[in-house]
Structures are given as structure tokens and as C-alpha cells.
Amino acid sequence: MSENSSSTAAGIPLQRLLLQTADAVQAVRQGRSLTDVLARCPRELRPGTQALSFHVLRHLGAAQALRRQLAPKAPPPKVENLLLCALALLWPAEEPPYAAHTVVDQAVRAMRQRAAPSAGFVNAVLRRFLREREALVQALQRDPVAHHNHPQWWIDRVRQDWPEHWQGILAANNSRPPMTLRVNARQGSAADYQARLTAQGLASRLLGDRLPQGLLLDRPQPVSALPGFEQGAVSVQDAAAQIAAPLTVAALRGRTGEGQDLALAALPSGARVLDACSAPGGKTAHLLELQALDLLALDADAERLARVNDNLARLQLQAGTRAVDARQTADWWDGRPFDAILLDAPCSASGIVRRHPDVRWLRRPEDIAQLARIQAELLDALWPLLKPGGRLVYATCSLFRAEGQDQVDAFLQRRPDAKALECAGLTGHLLPVPDNGSQNAAGQAVPLDGFFYALLLKSPASTH
After folding, report:
1. Are the C-beta atoms of residues 394 and 382 closer than 8 Å to each other?
2. Phi, psi at residue 273, to the nearest 5°?
3. Which has fewest Cβ within 10 Å: 37, 85, 169, 186?
4. What does the pLDDT look like over 126-147, one tens digit per residue?
5. 417-446 pLDDT tens trace
């Protein structure tokens, strides 16, 4: 975006995008997912609306505090949410999306379209903020919600769970996520695909032995720019999420020692594997890229399961898929035990907030206990389906201990036939801060989302 223009690179006036973004932010504040809102946004406005919405939601705590300071009486929602968007865009940033005078001008123009009598009010508030910006920003640094741009309960929980890393976690959540790729092992190596990228002028770096199919792009790109994407040569998948499939495959061969290459842990073709909560299908596809398996992929949401089928079709892979609640085993299990189960359980998504900045504003404190109950129910329901000596990989994209280590500890107390295994330093909580990431061969930090992995072994003598 040009900082000195009222139009985006696509020639769309900023005032149009501000109106769309204000609607999106209002929907999130009312409890709707940004993903769902953007899906209903006019196609030509969607990229710009998404970019602005992400920026606003990463600064929403500060914007809301500013609004209360500058206009103690809340204006009507259609006015307030447009004002919040403008304030977030004016908040100091290393790379401001637009010049300040452009934001003010376009916000006032947008307000004239939406509620003309309030245009003067919006103009006055924004110009006052610019006059007093330094003092106002400094004062709001003492407000934790404004400073960290997370709800207070979220800040408190992260601080309690990670007293040494909480500030780094919250800061990482407000950064732009890297774009990582997973190269299809059936079509070539990561080094081979890196050469294809280089030939097209796209710089990248290998993620290393721990993530042997992974590549990190220097700059995010549309998938249409990735060579061979439509032919299944590569997929977009976060580095932390790329651990699940090779960990599952390696566990089946018992190759989970420090320093071992997870991708090379081959097992006999046809091993029976369950992907219990599979949508949108990245981990499902990764499993099949690594190994020929008798794979069943489940998801409770039929629409999301359609995305699994779409991903498999693009990658020319096959698996059984069923839209069912994995907990209701009587509805779908045929009685044949599984060699391995991957349970990427529903969770708060607190580890992937930089990719989904609306999550922090949508979640409520009581959600965590409710999600933890669902996770426990899934573990208890699926464990009997695992053959003696089999392995279950439990994963969540959460950094809350209640959904990770505490959940597994409680399960181990309930199941004496279960044992937790360590695997190459990749089990446990992975935090989205540099000093907790993996490293590639060059010693460079690999940026990870927040995730939790546990590898559980079922006793060979188990009869349950």
C-alpha cells in the first residue's frame, strides 16, 4: 500500500476498504469469526479488507483504550467501529500502512457515506489524537490491554503459564506470521523445490533436519506464484504443524530418538492410521506424502471435511473420510484397531493468534475449560481403539497448559496402560518466541507457531 495515496495497489479507495473493515471488526466484536466474515466480503475487496482487519485486530486493545480516552461516551456501533479502525491505523508502527493525513481524510469520507452527521465528530477525534499522540501513547503503555493488545484474562493466563516468556509470547502474537511451505515428499526434496523457487526469483531457506520438507519464504506469496502448486508439488503449512505427521510415522517404527530424521522413519505399507480431527487436511495429506497408509480421516464439520477432500485431490492422494464426531465411536468404528492415531484436538487456537488475530477477541475465559473437557472426552474415546503397543499423537495449536501438558498429565493418571514418550525434543509445548524455536542446519531460528505435542504409547499387554 502506498503511504501517500488514498488508494490501494489494486486501485481501490481506502474509504471503501475502511467501510468493509469496520463491518468486519464489528462482527468480530459481536462474536463472529473473521474467516467467516471475509468469506462473504466482495471478492475484489477481500485482500485489502483482510490486510486492514488483521492490522486493526492486532491493535484493537490500544484503539479501544484510545476511544474511551478521546470519546468517553461510546458512539453508535457503526461510528465506533470505523473510528476504531482509523485509530488502529494511526497507532505508531514501524511500517505504517498509510500516512496519517490519508487515514484521517479517508475515514472522514467513509463516515460521510455511513453516517454523515458523525463525520465532524470522527474528524475531531482523529485530529486530536494526532496532536496529542505522543502523550496519549505513552500514557496507555500503563494499560496492559492497550500495551499488549490482548484481553486481560488472556494476558493473565499466559503470564501464569509462562512466567519467563509471557511478554515475548504476546509480542510474537502481534507480529506478522512467516509463510512456510511443505514440499510433497512424493514429488521431490525440499532442496529440489528451493531450486525451483530460486529460478523464479523467490528467496527461501530450508528449515533443517527436524522439518525436512519445510521451506521458509523470505516474503509471503500468493499460492498462484508457487511453481507446481496446482500439481501438488507443495502446500502451505506452518512449521510447527509440520511436526505432526512425521512424528506419527516415526512413532510407528519406534524411531523417536534425539537427532533422528523423522521423515525417513518408513513403516510397512498399509498400516492402519486414524486422523481423528482432520480438517482442513494439511496433516492428513502430510501423512500420506510420507507413507502409503490405510488412513481414515474424520471431522465433525462436513463443510470443513470437504476441504480435506479438496486438498487430497490436489495432491493426488487417497484416504477414507467421514463427517462424524470422533467421540461417538459406535457411529463409525468398524472394530479394527489402529496402529496409530493422530488427535489434533479442537482447542482455543491460542498458539496461532498471529495468523488468526481475531481469536484473542472471540475467546472467553470459560471456553478453555469447555475445550479441555472435549479434549479429555476425545482421548478417552479413542484410546480403546488403539491396538496394544500402538501410539497416539496428541496435538493442539494452543500454548495454554490446560490444553497441553495438564491435559496429558490428567490422562496418564486415568490410564495406567499409557506412557508418555519423548521424541527428538519435539514433544511438549512449543512457544512462538525465538529462544524456544528449533534451528536449521545453519543455526538460524525456525519461527514456530504455538503448539503442543505428546506421544503416548499403549502398553503391549493392554486389553482395553
Report:
1. no
2. -130, 140
3. 186
4. 999 999 999 999 999 999 999 9
5. 999 998 766 899 998 865 444 544 444 466
